[in-house]
Design brief:
The structure holds two protein chains of two kinds. In chain A, helix 6 packs antiparallel against helix 7. Chain A is mainly α. Chain A has helices spanning about 5-20, 25-45, 55-65, 70-80, 85-145, 150-210, 215-270, 280-290, 300-324. Chain B is an alpha+beta fold. Chain B is elongated, with a radius of gyration of 19 Å. Chain B has helices at about 1-20, 30-35, 45-55, 80-105, 110-120, and strands at about 25, 60-65, 70-80. The chains are: A mainly alpha, B alpha+beta. The interface between A and B is medium-sized, with 26 and 20 residues.
């Protein structure tokens, strides 16, 4: 059935006031409520014979809902998202989101600590092994330096390869630990940022509910807290970006320190060599290490250096053999 | 008396609605009409908010249907958990009415005396 224009205007006005009074309700509730009222009016009109002007009948039907404001108040008490229920569920939502935010941030920090601690552990475990290998090389060279060149060069090549394999494993381990730390930091930090966003939305809902209840001061406080939550989220995201950007520098610093120590050892090795038997390894280590720092992936660097050392040792053997 | 009567009807309204919906799905006006016919006076301003709450709690489900009427109607039906709820409410209602019945029966003679005494005074 078709409603007369005056009847349509009555319903439209009722729904407009009702939607305004349902401000704090979810949008789908406002839309469905308006549709339901119109459907009810049409149902009533279809059952009654038409008496008088239709819009007078429509006014009577709408009056049975009470005023739009009264009806909205009754709806808000009953449906989810009302003042009382939204305050308690909103507070719970914010509480849970705040706990998740703290948990996410805590996990981020833990991941960073684990990453750095893992680097330290790797340095201690594999670095010490590498240092001991280098010390062994020095002892051998001191002994072999009295013999003619060929065999010593072969020895040096073998020992350097072993040392480089150890270095490669160390650097690879460092890279894996840092990558894992970065992955965890991104994963949990991002989860923390998302929960922080939920906290901000929950605070905004609470603020709207408090405003509706007339607690304007409380509403302002909640709104400020919501902005603070968003600021924390923003800082967290920028912090994450900073952590990821810094990871290569942290790794590079640790490895640089290690290769310096190796270089010092090689200096000692050189002091024990026969004059003219120039290993040149220290400068090679230093140069390659500096090149690696901050740019190359740890595993690729280890393989690259090992390959270079093998080539050098073969050349040295050929030169020494040609000299005899 | 009026306030007590209102509270009594208010308490029983939810059970009455669920009992009707246990028969078949109904729309809002249909529920109001059937309740009025059964002696339960209820207005639209009470019925629809109640249906909204029951929907939110998952006791009833609602769907829009465009049928012979020409305009879409929102039909409500009882859900599984709603049927369980209805069972519990019916059982509690039976216990309640049985207890009240015993009290009323036990107090009948006293009530009769009170009424007879008032008539004599009048």
């Amino acid at each position: 059935m078709m409603l007369q224009p005056e009847s349509q205007a009555l319903i439209r006005d009722f729904n407009r006031r009702l939607k305004a009074a349902l401000r704090s309700a979810p949008n789908h509730v406002r839309v469905e409520t308006a549709m339901e009222i119109e459907s009810h009016v049409l149902d009533v009109l279809s059952r009654q014979p038409s008496e008088g002007l239709e819009h007078e009948q429509v006014a009577g039907i709408l009056a049975r809902f009470g005023s739009p404001e009264e009806y909205a108040a009754a709806l808000l008490v009953q449906v989810p998202g009302n003042d009382v229920i939204s305050l308690s569920s909103g507070a719970k939502e914010v509480g849970m989101a705040a706990v998740d935010l703290v948990r996410g941030t805590g996990r981020l920090v833990l991941a960073m600590v684990r990453g750095v601690a893992g680097v330290g552990l790797a340095i201690v475990r594999y670095g010490w092994k590498g240092l001991r290998r280098a010390a062994g090389t020095a002892a051998v060279l001191a002994e072999r330096s009295r013999e003619p060149g060929g065999k010593a060069a072969g020895w040096v090549a073998d020992r350097i390869r072993a040392g480089l394999r150890g270095t490669g494993r160390l650097v690879g381990f460092i890279g894996a630990v840092l990558a894992q730390g970065a992955r965890l930091a991104l994963r949990w930090g991002w989860a923390g940022a998302r929960q922080g966003r939920r906290a901000a939305y929950g605070l905004a809902d609470l603020s709207a509910a408090a405003w509706r209840l007339g607690k304007k001061a409380v509403a302002w406080v909640l709104r400020a807290a919501g902005f603070a939550a968003l600021a924390v989220v923003t800082l967290l995201v920028f912090g994450l970006a900073g952590v990821v950007a810094l990871m290569p520098d942290v790794a590079g610093w640790w490895v640089y320190e290690f290769q310096l120590q190796v270089g010092y050892l090689m200096d000692d090795i050189r002091r024990h060599t026969v004059a003219g038997f120039d290993l040149g390894t220290r400068s090679q280590f230093a140069g390659t290490g500096t090149l690696m720092l901050g740019t190359l992936l740890a595993v690729g660097f280890g393989l690259l250096v090992a390959w270079g050392a093998i080539i050098w040792a073969a050349r040295r053997r050929r030169q020494t053999a040609a000299g005899h | 008396m009026e306030a007590w009567d209102t509270q009594l009807r208010k308490g029983g309204l939810e059970l009455a609605v669920l009992l009707l919906l246990s028969r078949h799905r109904m729309y809002g006006l249909e529920l109001i009409s059937q309740l009025n016919d059964a002696g339960f006076a209820v207005s639209e301003g009470t019925m629809y908010p109640l249906l909204g709450r029951l929907s939110g709690q998952g006791i009833v489900s609602a769907e829009w249907v465009t049928g012979d009427s020409g305009h879409p109607r929102k039909y409500y039906r009882l859900t599984g958990s709603g049927a369980e709820q209805l069972g519990r409410m019916t059982s509690q209602w039976n216990d309640f009415t049985a207890a009240m019945g015993r009290l009323v029966l036990g107090s009948r003679q006293a009530l009769d005396r009170l009424v007879t005494g008032k008539e004599a005074q009048a």
